[in-house]
Amino acid sequence: EYDAAQEIVTKAEAALDAITTTLTPEDADDRTLLAAKKYLFDQKERVLEAVGVSFVGDVAPILNTKCSRCHGMQASGGLNLNTFASIQRGGRSGLLLTPGSPTRSLIMAKLIHPDDAQRMPRGAARLSDDELLKISIWIKKGAKFDAQDADATLADLIRTANRPALGKVEIPKPSGTETVSFTKDIAPFMVNLCVRCHSGNTPASGLDLTTFEKMMEGGDSGRVIIPGNVEGSRMFRLVGGLENPRMPANNQARITRQNYDDFKKWFEEGNKFDGDSIKTPLRDLVPSVAEARAEELAKLTDDQWLDLRLERTEDQWKRTLPKEPGSRVEGEEFLVWGNVSRERLTEINTMAEKNLLGIKTMFSDKSDKRTFNGRLAIMVFKDRLGYEEFNLTIERRRPDASIIGHTKVTDSLEDAYVVLEDLGDDPAEGQMNFETNLVTQLSSAYLQKSGTRLPDWVSFGTGLYLAARSGGDAYFKTLPPVAAEALTGITQPEAIFAEGAFSPGQSGAVGYTLVTFLIKNGGAGKFGQFVSRLKSGSTVDAAFRAIYRADATAMAIGYSKTLPQP
User: With contact defined as beta carbons under 8 Å apart, do 72 and 81 qualify?
Assistant: First the structure.
């Protein structure tokens, strides 16, 4: 009865138009208008009930157009509406759909909420009656998914549904004789010049260039690449200037002559794909600036690494204290630079060499290679003014008054340095001496060079534990009470292991007492295994379970019992 129902709807719409356009506000009968609108709505519902509602054809376009701004990749409220699978999962407020019951489905409650501030889409017009009706009928009919890939984006589902069938996409594979590589020569300039317009929920001309697979599928006009056919491929005609509008668009940078030559040769050689997966985003095929720099650094010789370390350290020192050049001592493992005496720098180098050996021994590191490419730079300032100036000029921050040293080791080792304020070997009561400060930062630097960010309590605690084994520093006696006081603000035991749980003045005390507790209750060997687990990406809880056979909560409770009562 679809045709008959549609005829009724058409007549009802015409009648409603006549009522609303011919009657003046004074003559209009609100009850008549409401009755007419309800009649029209009922007829539309009757049609949709009869023919059903398609998720891909009816619901997905509404959600993609009206909801993706907030609930796309940003996932406001923990709700991602980018795919059917994510729609099914819901967000922090719970599940969106109760198949068969629109009135019990959270999505409908949000869409028809009477409060403008609470109704979705937030800050935009309410969905039309027709749009709400389609979503409601779809849910009533079981909220069924009528496509194949629930993880495909709504935009992809809509484009695929609207695109004429072109048959299976063939992906040309390399033979090994190609002179142009897609991943090395083509993908980089496409990512920089093309992907910005040809991506997202509404890519230009329906052509999505985020993956090789989508590029080969084509856009609204069909396929844009015919492998091996240069002038017959729409993509080359547009990029190569054989057809207008020329691509990239006028507001984009143009391809270079080298880009053009590579692009043409790639077509002539059959548009081969030399990556691992056609579904991999092109951005992932192209090394970032950091990755490209890491590749350059990996090729440096030992002498070139030393030249780089000297150059960067001297530059940082000059920017910090341009009128005070300082001096340096170069050892086997360290480059020590500072404005203290040369004798002090030599003493610090010897001190650092001895303690680095202790750190490597703790972690069973028997490598005879230099620990840091180009050596680890140790910059020493004779007073607080110099140390604070380095933080302000180089690190762009103002350090907490309790911080007298810090470390920076990047994944590529382009930066690898320790910066210290020299408080001397006999500082004021309650402060660590220079060697303790040095060992703490050396330990942090050593653990950072793995490339994995470890919790501060592990890095600093390890250094302080190693320094304490040398004895002679009254500073360590002050740490347990500080740690006990810090724990009074913790409501959940396992929260003591969370990053940022303590202030800079407390983190060292907690780290030292925690590491001491772990080593006393399992030995240095087990602690080394625990740290290795963290470096491999394990969570603190999982590492505790694997090495100490107890969860984070139990370990936290056991540790807290070893501290004095605050």
Answer: yes
CB burial of 534-565 (b: ≥16 within 10 Å; e: otherwise) equals bbeebebeebbbebbeeebeebbeebbeebee
Query: Are 449 and 371 a contacting pair, CB within 8 Å?
Result: yes
Concatenated DSSP letters of 180-235: S-IIIIIHHHHHHHTTTTS-SSS-GGG---SBHHHHHH-BTTB-S--TT-TTT-HH
Are residues 424 and 383 in contact, defined by beta-carbon separation less than 8 angstroms?
no
DSSP-derived 3-state class of residue 268? helix
Q: How far apart are CA 111 and CA 119, in angstroms?
A: 6
Q: What is the pLDDT of residue 164?
A: 55
Q: What is the DSSP string of 306-372?
A: HHHHHHHHHHHHHHH-TT---EEEE-SSEEEEESS-HHHHHHHHHHHHHHHHHHHHHTT----S-SS
Give the pLDDT score at 192.
Answer: 84
pLDDT along the chain (566 residues), means of 10: 69 73 58 66 71 83 84 78 88 87 89 86 85 88 86 80 63 90 90 85 82 87 86 88 79 80 93 90 81 83 94 95 93 96 96 92 88 95 95 92 91 93 82 90 89 83 86 80 90 87 85 94 91 90 94 94 86
Q: What is the per-residue pLDDT for 103?
A: 87
CA atoms within 13 A on the CB side of 148: 2
What type of residue sits at position 246? R
Q: How many angstroms separate the CA atoms of 527 and 515, rounded?
A: 8
Contact 563, 484 (CB under 8 A): yes
**537: its two tokens:** 């990406």
Which amino acid, residue 527? F
Note whether 377 and 331 are within 8 A (CB).
Answer: no
Q: In this predicted structure, what is the pLDDT of residue 33? A: 62
In terms of Cα–Cα distance, which of 473, 474, 487, 472 is closest to 517? 487
Distance, CA of 197 to CA of 187 (rounded, Å): 15
d(CA 199, CA 159): 12
Which residue in 473, 543, 554, 565 sits closest to 512, CA to CA? 473
Handedness of CA 60, 62, 65, 66 (dihedral sign): negative
Using CA atoms, how far apart are residues 182 and 188, in angstroms rounded to an integer? 9
CA distance 215 to 156: 12
Q: Which two tokens stand for residue 508?
A: 């060292």
